[in-house]
Hints:
- This protein has 758 residues and is an alpha/beta fold.
Amino acid sequence: MSAPEGILVLASRREVRRRVFDVLDSAACRPIHSARDTQHAAILLEGRPPLKLIVALLDADPDAARECCAKLRALPAGAGVPLIVIVDDETPLDVSQLPDGVDAWLPAQHIESDLLDRWRRLPASMPAAPAPSPGAADKALRTLLHIVNSHGSDATRDVTARRVFDEMGLDYLAVWPKRGDGVDFQTPLLRLWNGVEPAWPAVDDFVLLHRVLAGETILWRNQARQRAPDDPLLPQLELAGLVGLPLLDERREVLGAVLAGARRGFDDMAIAEPLLRCAALRFAHGLELARTREQGRAEGLLDALTGLPNRLLFADRLETILREAVRNGECFAVLFVDLDHFKAVNDNHGHAAGDQVLQEVTRRLRGSVRASDTVARYAGDEFTVVLRHIVKNDDVQRVVEKILQAVGEPLQLDSGVRVATGVSIGVSFFPDDAPDADTLIKHADEAMYAAKHQGRNTFRVYEVSPEYAREHGMALRSRLRHALGNGELRVVYQPQVETQSEDIMGMEALVRWEHPELGLISPAVFVPLAEETGLIVPIGEWVLRTACRQAQEWEARYALRLRIGVNLSAVQLMEPKLPATVFRALQETGLDPTLLELEVTESISIKAAPNLVENLQALHRLGCRIAIDDFGTGAASLDYLRKLPADRIKVDQSFVRNIGVDPDDEAIVRATIEMAHRLNRAVVAEGVETEQHLAFLREQGCDELQGYLFSRPLAVAAFERLLAERQQALGEQRPRAQPAAVMAHAGAVKDSTMGASA
Ligand code: C2E
Ligand code: MG
Ligand code: MG
């Protein structure tokens, strides 16, 4: 029988799955299979060796909980596997009624702090949790960082050192700063040594330190002394294993070095290396923060009351983040946060009270975001926040809701008076809403006012107003003529996922216009203008060719048979030479025609569009798929299905948005899916934004999904990262093997590394 391998995380709530995943993932426990229910788990685990551990969120109903446990035990990979149960905070299970065979339990709020520990404390007969424990080490590292930042006393250092060393199997750990270009430092920022204080060698002789400060990474499991015979520290401390990592800032410049050594050598570099890399990232971040603070204080860039970056420093930071994002094809969000009723606090309780509120709000804001995010005091009672590495709307919504909740807690003033606080938040996205910092802030500010309008302590995402679009229509029309030639058009790609597995099946190509002055213009605004002028034909052809080339490149690299959806406008569809154009694009790029799906919006009237039916039939004969876009919005739905060779229909976002809100729209979605299936057509739902949408569409048997819940439209680099993460989450072995909830995994992997990737 094969050795136990892998962990099953079973929870109906995605948020819980993700948190458990993050904890296990950061402890390098792999592979992790994460499933919604036992049926999903059975699919994931088919043919797999027995598990090492099962972590399950159980239903509050004791019978359902018992049944779930029994099903887990009945899985071939699940018999006799240690089972830890998470008890939900929202609908708690009565723990006195836990089913038989549960080995340990913990409340959901303690997943991060206790899960690994609980596993480690299970009886010895069970497969062991990884040791040394990275979860505990992670805690120790946080303490270490605290010492670095606060220059803690030697006494606290000693205590921490002992704990850290035990947990990580280290004997020596030092963090060295680098100041300016030279090395005009004599002492490390932090030095922990498991032994009697030796006479430390002079810094200048410390060869390895200089190598790491020059950017080199050292990973020596043992025999370090033989590898660097000229270094004085290794023999003096009798170190056999050494890890040296440069500390890098956002621009990848060296800020310092972390050195870690072990007398016995490192048993397992696979554990030590990621831990120390994680530590290095944290140290680097701490150093960078300390450095900016120092600079900021010197140059008047920090707000005196809250210690946050002020408007000036924020602008500077935002520019840096923007440049990075352009280079990496990343999305980020800008939040404009405005305190509600702050004036009343000042007026009724005095300025000291106002200051106290601002300080407390600062603390809560900071506590709600990741270390790599930026919080600034923009002015008076206004704060700005940048949330980096955004893939899904969800990423922002989670943080925004956390902020609303944290700041919404009443606050006790020094005078003993309790005051209610709240904020209104506006959100804008880069690059969707603007290409430059000023406009991003402006848009977030506008959205914030919309939120205030809506009734405070809430948030709004920026939307372009139709008036604005009309006003700029004229100017845009003449400018659009040059957009293609000037290279101002881009294509972004939005994943489509399979409903059950949430695995990626394809993507839709969506065009963007980066106007040099006005910023990013939505296709909803400029495609109609391009249609009026006939420019849509060359533009559409360019999008088609770009998308096919990209899809073929990904196919060559990942062999996932991803389908690429390309939108065709009415004008293109009436062109008699459309099939020839598509044929040429396929030929030139080498893309398999069956991977190309052409989207036709339902708002085009079949009668009024000559050639439409013929063109689509010709495209179908080429082997291309046809999808009917925005299904349900026009009056022609049935006519379309009867007359056009459609393979799939895309349920329009306006219906999806109303799931859980409007029973009529729910009925339309239900009926559409049923009808499509009866006619042998597959269904894709667009604009899937919430778990509620997902649950409904899953229940109705919708085939595929597209929407912010899974991913926003992504630039090429970001899309590739998603594919790479998917591959990693699947353990890199098979191109498309088990239908695991890989998109969820990829997202979780991203989350767990995000704080560190600053
Ligand atoms: P569409 O074909 O229905 O594309 C889906 C639109 O929904 C995209 O907007 C996408 O970004 C947006 N979307 C995706 N998920 C969500 C979500 O969860 N919530 C919300 N609120 N929106 C979501 P986008 O990119 O602005 O495109 C708008 C329309 O412009 C497209 O609608 C399509 O009709 C047209 N279009 C886009 N690219 C092209 C193109 O290359 N050629 C032509 N002819 N039309 C295009
Ligand atoms: Mg479309
Ligand atoms: Mg659509």
